[in-house]
Design a protein that fits this description.
Blueprint: H1 10-35, H2 40-52, H3 55-80, H4 88-105, H5 111-140, H6 144-166, H7 189-192, H8 208-225, H9 227-237, H10 239-244, H11 249-276, H12 287-297, H13 302-325, H14 331-345, H15 349-365
Helix pairs in contact: 1-14, 1-15, 2-3, 2-13, 3-8, 3-11, 3-12, 3-13, 4-5, 4-6, 4-11, 4-12, 5-6, 5-11, 8-9, 8-11, 8-13, 9-11, 12-13, 13-14
Length: about 375
């Protein structure tokens, strides 16, 4: 017989369990730091100072967090439908391709039309590329995990072909597209906030961060305050019961995957329109896979996804600064710390849920 599911209060499930898993993973990471002969308290201080101790560091942290919000939400929406979308990298890559065609092809349009159309093009490209695996699972029984893995490789090879043979800037040997027109890029945050009297350093942080915050709110409305969201959660909880209630699991599977891919397209918006201002190879840089950890740690809830994205933003930016101040702690060590967090938030989730349930039971008795 399988063990009965562990019931926890919603606040404990969303906040306390991830907090305990992060604390445990940081403790393990501290032991690793001690093992290489460094002071873990000093390393933690330097990491937090590099990520949050200055306006520039905070700006870089929020820039990284923007990518993680989009990819984390993409995975979270699929989770709610009982799907495991690990194709965020491929969906963002296709979104970047479609976005680039839009920015270059629609360049004669004024910026107030071009920018929204390009963002919609990116969302449509990501949605279509995720819809196909959803359709294959819904109609052909092809498991979405397998198909999204395959589609990641297809998108990577498609990007190489297009950037080398079709979209490469004339006269350039680099596999990248032509640079976008000035009115086809997102406004950097230091320029956006300058009229308000706020002086920020020139960093990659741009208005896509505001779009990411809007996406968090929109996904919350979708999942918890809409009929479609209720249907998505019902299918994810029990497809047979959903079908009995008149909800089509096949239809919800395709819709949820399309929404997931559209959110993954936000990564392309931030990187291609907001930072690079051109399409380059490997602009996804593993953000899609980190989004899986963000969704797991955030328990699939938009608020949790936002906090988890901020945590990984701190690790990315703080880890870069830490590697300068303590050369023994390389960038790869920070990746290991992130991996430990992923392990504890994912594979060991049940263990921490039991610990949390036992602790809450003791607190009630006391």
């Amino acid at each position: 017989m399988s063990a009965a599911p562990i019931e926890l209060p919603r606040w404990a499930d969303i906040a306390l369990v991830p907090l305990i898993s992060v604390a445990a993973s940081l403790l393990v990471a501290g032991l690793v730091v001690i093992g290489i002969g460094e002071n873990p308290l000093l390393a933690t201080t330097l990491l937090l100072k590099g990520a949050l101790g200055s306006v520039e560091g905070l700006s870089f942290t929020l820039y990284y967090a923007t990518n993680f919000i989009f990819t984390g939400l993409a995975v979270a929406v699929a989770f709610h439908a009982g799907l495991f979308n690990i194709g965020g990298e491929g969906q963002a890559s296709v979104a970047g391709i479609v976005l680039t065609f839009a920015c270059l092809g629609l360049a004669p349009l004024p910026g107030f039309l071009l920018v929204p159309l390009a963002i919609l093009a990116a969302a449509a490209g990501g949605a279509l590329y995720a819809f196909v695996p959803g359709w294959l699972q819904a109609t052909r029984g092809s498991h979405v995990v397998i198909t999204t893995i395959m589609f990641n490789f297809i998108a990577a090879n498609l990007s190489v072909y297009l950037l080398v043979e079709v979209m490469r800037k004339p006269g350039s040997m680099q596999p990248e597209s032509a640079e976008f027109a000035r009115h086809a890029i997102l406004t950097p945050m230091h320029i956006l906030l300058a009229p308000l009297g706020l002086k920020l350093p020139d960093t990659p942080l741009n208005s896509a961060f505001l779009l990411a915050l809007a996406a968090l709110f929109a996904v919350w409305l979708l999942i918890y305050r809409s009929r479609l969201g209720y249907e998505i959660r019902t299918v994810g909880a029990n497809p047979r019961a959903a079908a009995y209630a008149g909800i089509s699991p096949a239809q919800i599977t395709m819709i949820a995957m399309a929404i997931s891919g559209a959110l993954a397209g936000g990564l392309a918006v931030n990187e291609v329109m907001g930072v690079q201002h051109r399409l380059t190879l490997d602009f996804t840089a593993g953000y899609g896979f980190v989004g899986i950890a963000v969704a797991l740690m955030g328990r699939g809830h938009p608020a949790g996804v936002g906090l988890a994205a901020l945590l990984f933003g701190v690790l990315y930016q703080g880890g870069t600064e830490l590697s300068f101040d303590q050369p023994k702690i390389t960038r790869d060590m920070v990746v290991v710390i992130g991996g430990v967090i992923i392990l504890f938030a994912g594979a060991l989730e049940g263990l921490f849920r039991r610990f949390t349930a036992a602790g809450l039971a003791l607190a009630r008795k006391g």
